[in-house]
């Protein structure tokens, strides 16, 4: 069952980033589309893009908290996926493989941001933070809690931040989080637990 953090779920305070609605992909499964794409069928990769772009975009936007940066990462993710498609050992596992590519790109951006912040050189605006994505009718109290949550997550190690976001904001299953992080299920659970404890220790009412 998908899990959403208690602070977010009852208030419905978070809205999806603006993602252009795309027509549904053909009902063929990912493995069939991957096989066709490898045979040179450009439509097949476009179908894979249409099937997965919304989910990837939402997750990346939440993890990095900046729309322009997220757009760059999503574009790079699909470019890399197209270039590396032949290296995918299990075509049926395309979704998890694509998530790993996206997470690797996010890791690099967040690590760079941490260094820039230490040097007081990070001047970009977090226009897609949890607070910024709050619904227009969110109460001041909810916005204040989300601002505190953003601060805790910003100070967190990227690996913990990514795990927490995927599990409690995007509501991904544990197996999906582990696949995206390219770690064992036990490691994914441990990272989520550590991140959750840090959030609960600093954000009132989050339990």
Walk me through the structure.
The chain has 207 residues and is mostly helical. It has 2 domains: 21-128, Orthogonal Bundle (Rna Polymerase Sigma Factor, Chain: A); 137-207, Winged helix-like DNA-binding domain superfamily/Winged helix DNA-binding domain (Arc Repressor Mutant, subunit A, Orthogonal Bundle). Helices cover 62% and strands 0% of the residues. The chain contains 8 helices and no strands. The chain has helices spanning 30-38, 42-64, 67-84, 94-118, 140-155, 158-169, 174-181, 185-202. Helix 5 (140-155) packs across helix 8 (185-202), helix 6 packs antiparallel against helix 7 and helix 6 crosses helix 8 (185-202). The radius of gyration is 17 Å and the shape is globular. The chain starts with 29 loop residues before the first helix and ends in a 5-residue tail after the last helix. Mean pLDDT is 84; it is low at 9-27.
In short:
With 207 residues, the protein is mainly α. It has helices spanning 30-38, 42-64, 67-84, 94-118, 140-155, 158-169, 174-181, 185-202.
* CATH architecture label of the largest domain: Orthogonal Bundle
Overall tally of domains: 2
What's the pLDDT, averaged over the residues? 84
Under CATH at level 1, the class of the largest domain stands as Mainly Alpha
| Helical stretch tally | 8
How much helix is in the residues?
55-70%
H/E series:
HHHHHHHH
Beta-strand fraction estimate = under 5%
């Amino acid at each position: 069952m998908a899990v959403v953090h208690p602070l977010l779920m009852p208030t419905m305070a978070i809205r999806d980033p603006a993602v252009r609605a795309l027509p549904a992909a053909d009902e063929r499964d990912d493995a069939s589309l991957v096989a066709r794409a490898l045979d040179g069928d450009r439509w097949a990769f476009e179908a894979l893009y249409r099937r997965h772009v919304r989910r990837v975009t939402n997750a990346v936007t939440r993890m990095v908290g900046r729309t322009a940066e997220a757009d760059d990462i999503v574009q790079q993710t699909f470019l890399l996926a197209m270039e590396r498609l032949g290296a995918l050992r299990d075509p049926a596992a395309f979704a998890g493989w694509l998530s790993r590519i996206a997470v690797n790109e996010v890791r690099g951006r967040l690590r760079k941001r941490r260094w820039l912040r230490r040097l007081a050189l990070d001047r970009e605006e977090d226009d897609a933070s949890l607070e910024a994505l709050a619904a227009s009718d969110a109460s001041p109290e909810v916005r204040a809690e989300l601002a505190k949550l953003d601060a805790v997550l910003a100070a967190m190690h990227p690996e913990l931040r990514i795990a927490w976001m995927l599990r409690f904001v995007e509501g991904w299953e544990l197996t999906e989080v582990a696949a995206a992080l390219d770690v064992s299920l036990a490691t994914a659970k441990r990272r989520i637990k550590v991140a959750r404890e840090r959030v609960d220790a600093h954000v009132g009412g989050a339990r």
